[in-house]
Predict the structure of Peptidase.
Amino acid sequence: MSNHSSPYPIGTPGKPWRESEVSEWSRQQTVQRSYADDVQSVVEQLAKRFDHIQYGRLAVDPARYPLHALRSQDWNDTLPTMLVTGGVHGYETSGVLGALRFLEEAAAAYDGRANLLVAPCVSPWGYERIQRWNHAAVDPNRSFCDNSPSQEAAALWALVRPLRARIVMHIDLHETTDTDETEFRPALAARDGKPFEPGEIPDGFYLVDDTERPQPAFQNAVIQAVAAVTHIAEADAQGEIIGSPMVAPGVIRYPLGALQLCAGMTDARYRTTTEVYPDSPRTDAEACIRAQVAAVTAAIDFALAASA
């Protein structure tokens, strides 16, 4: 971990990383949990109830990191399609476990009503190392584009692209953690040769809407559902959440497409990024998972009602 008072331990302050620094950083990332045990074993069980799609393998270790998605067995092209993604940042645990929990406990309610496509762990290398980046120090969630520098993003892009215009709703499940401030943002500044500017981590759940195509009623429906499970983040003294103006309770906006974020990869009318705060003393890991499930179900319910 880094801290605010000392330089990041890799690289030279003010100079972007070269290949040698990237390699040094990658070597320092150690496996801390099992993708096979936590994700693939659950996917195998879910494959009895959903169509299983293996949409790629990570070149860094193809045998260890197949990429999995699950979709409705009763897929019907006349029904609206809903996309759920988790683990784009591998360290954001409730995004992965929330996507799996949704499939286990809540997805059956949409049989015959919607087509579901769920990619629960987009970045398995990062999942095992509790890391934001992939092995090449690339952020997959700034890489959803043609000729992507992230194999994780490129594989999901290829899977989703044929359906891009038909997806009605896309919810991308994330977390904001204390390590964003102590490790990941300092690492980003060091990688890019820029000074680190300390920020403030919001205490609570919030959403990221699309600046270019905002859907305030949709975002509010998700916030209201999650508020029954865990607390919603409040704005800081500047009226912001992580440097962006809060436009409604628990909601900020980013230009999702321009930033090449996962939530901006489709033409879905309804799209959002969830941000759970697992480090709060006011919540716990189980509540964070349930908050993600509540967000997914509320998002689908709203999109179905609006499409009726």
In short: The CA atoms of residues 240 and 246 lie 5 Å apart. The beta strands are 51-57, 66-71, 81-86, 115-119, 167-175, 206-210, 240-241, 244-245, 251-254, 270-276. The chain has a mean pLDDT of 96. Residues 285-307 form the longest helix (23 residues).
